[in-house]
């Protein structure tokens, strides 16, 4: 098997993730913020350690504003629906995932408007056009850092600078960049950063984080209200962080798993992980150049992309080709529109979609060579 679907979820997970989750379920079992016995205190300490690791990884100053979420989609909904009200305006790019677009489409029916900042045919934001989209009622800019279709990376630092100059909050969807490259909350001048735990962070599904700026957090209305284990004498939500955004029982198995994954990332280093994936991405892209009857969607320029690589088969139906890649060669990919119809329209891969190969930390040169041989055999 050659697993090249890491943009959907990383496989295998970081060493120790499964063991730490098993140990929590079998040996700890307690929840946090509810009791003071030893196992509950241990769970609370692991949760705090996770928040601290998230802050170190993403250049965020305050662990109390590292909110634990079910994933990036939940975090983005917390930002978009927690902030925007009828009459407000939002700016996105034309490369967004449905985790951004579907909440906005819901809010559009309630009087929220939005504009798509144009991107070129390789998915790169036409940065000079962004300021012209800003209105008096623009309350948010939210964008994907890296495309889940083409791997195209946007200049988040430049976008953050424009937003800061106009006093507009900037929220970044780092679903495809977190764990793959440097993502810096302060340098990007972010108001919010949404990350999933199960992709580049190498943890389990069902866990993620939303890192917030202090002033921006005060503007958000929590989507979910309920018990937090704190201020139990009140029927109002507590106003302090992170409790205000963490109602209900926390996903402790996920917290233990993600904390272990981030420990691995800290020990190995983002720079090493990025260098490994870049080497393999270059090998893949170089190999694609010599294969006929396939088309790359996105840039060949390694500095402008991640290891998410989408191609179209010119003489074959993409779905049929993806099926053959698995059946005959054991190459696992993702075929279709990848929950990002706007991105595919921008890349001119609509409506056929593409076959996506996404490289992860555990892939090898042999995986890349095997995938290229399979593509060549399948494309004819």
From TrEMBL:
<dbReference type="InterPro" id="IPR000192">
    <property type="entry name" value="Aminotrans_V_dom"/>
</dbReference>
<dbReference type="InterPro" id="IPR016454">
    <property type="entry name" value="Cysteine_dSase"/>
</dbReference>
<keyword id="KW-0808">Transferase</keyword>
<protein>
    <recommendedName>
        <fullName>cysteine desulfurase</fullName>
        <ecNumber>2.8.1.7</ecNumber>
    </recommendedName>
</protein>
<dbReference type="GO" id="GO:0008483">
    <property type="term" value="F:transaminase activity"/>
</dbReference>
<feature type="domain" description="Aminotransferase class V">
    <location>
        <begin position="2"/>
        <end position="369"/>
    </location>
</feature>
<dbReference type="Pfam" id="PF00266">
    <property type="entry name" value="Aminotran_5"/>
</dbReference>
<dbReference type="InterPro" id="IPR010969">
    <property type="entry name" value="Cys_dSase-rel_unknwn_funct"/>
</dbReference>
<dbReference type="GO" id="GO:0031071">
    <property type="term" value="F:cysteine desulfurase activity"/>
</dbReference>
<keyword id="KW-0032">Aminotransferase</keyword>
<dbReference type="InterPro" id="IPR015421">
    <property type="entry name" value="PyrdxlP-dep_Trfase_major"/>
</dbReference>
<comment type="similarity">
    <text>Belongs to the class-V pyridoxal-phosphate-dependent aminotransferase family. Csd subfamily.</text>
</comment>
<dbReference type="InterPro" id="IPR015424">
    <property type="entry name" value="PyrdxlP-dep_Trfase"/>
</dbReference>
<keyword id="KW-0663">Pyridoxal phosphate</keyword>
<dbReference type="InterPro" id="IPR015422">
    <property type="entry name" value="PyrdxlP-dep_Trfase_small"/>
</dbReference>
């Amino acid at each position: 098997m050659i697993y090249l679907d890491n943009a959907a979820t990383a496989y295998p997970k970081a060493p120790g993730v499964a063991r730490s989750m098993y140990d929590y379920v079998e040996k700890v079992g307690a929840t946090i913020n509810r009791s003071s016995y030893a196992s509950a205190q241990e769970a609370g300490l692991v949760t705090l350690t996770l928040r601290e690791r998230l802050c170190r990884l993403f250049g965020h100053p305050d662990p109390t504003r590292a909110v634990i979420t079910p994933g990036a989609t939940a975090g983005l909904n917390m930002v978009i629906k927690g902030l925007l009200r009828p009459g407000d305006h939002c700016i996105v790019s034309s490369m967004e995932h449905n985790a951004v677009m579907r909440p906005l489409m819901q809010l559009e029916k309630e009087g929220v408007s939005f504009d798509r900042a144009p991107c070129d045919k390789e998915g790169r934001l036409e940065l000079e056009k962004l300021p012209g989209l800003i209105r008096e009622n623009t309350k948010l800019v939210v964008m994907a850092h890296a495309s889940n279709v083409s791997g195209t990376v946007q200049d988040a630092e430049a976008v953050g600078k424009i937003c800061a100059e106009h006093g507009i909050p900037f929220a970044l969807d780092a679903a495809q960049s977190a764990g793959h490259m440097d993502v810096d909350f302060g340098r990007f001048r972010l108001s919010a950063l949404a990350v999933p735990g199960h992709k580049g962070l190498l943890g389990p599904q069902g866990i993620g984080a939303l890192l917030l700026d202090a002033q921006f957090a005060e503007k958000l209305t929590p989507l979910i209200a309920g018990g937090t284990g704190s201020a139990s004498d009140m029927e109002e939500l507590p106003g302090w962080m992170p409790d205000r955004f963490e109602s209900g029982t926390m996903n402790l198995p996920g917290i233990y798993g993600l904390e272990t994954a981030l420990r691995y990332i800290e020990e190995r280093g983002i720079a090493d992980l990025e260098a490994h994936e870049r080497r393999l991405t270059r090998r893949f892209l170089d190999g694609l150049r010599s294969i006929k009857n396939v088309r790359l969607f996105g840039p060949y320029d390694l500095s402008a992309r991640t290891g998410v690589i989408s191609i179209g088969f010119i003489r074959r139906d993409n779905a049929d080709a993806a099926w053959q890649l698995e059946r005959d060669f054991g190459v696992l990919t993702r075929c279709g529109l990848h929950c990002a119809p706007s991105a595919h329209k921008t890349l001119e891969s609509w409506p056929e979609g593409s076959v996506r190969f996404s490289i992860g930390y555990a892939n090898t040169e042999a995986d890349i060579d095997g995938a290229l041989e399979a593509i060549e055999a399948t494309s004819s």
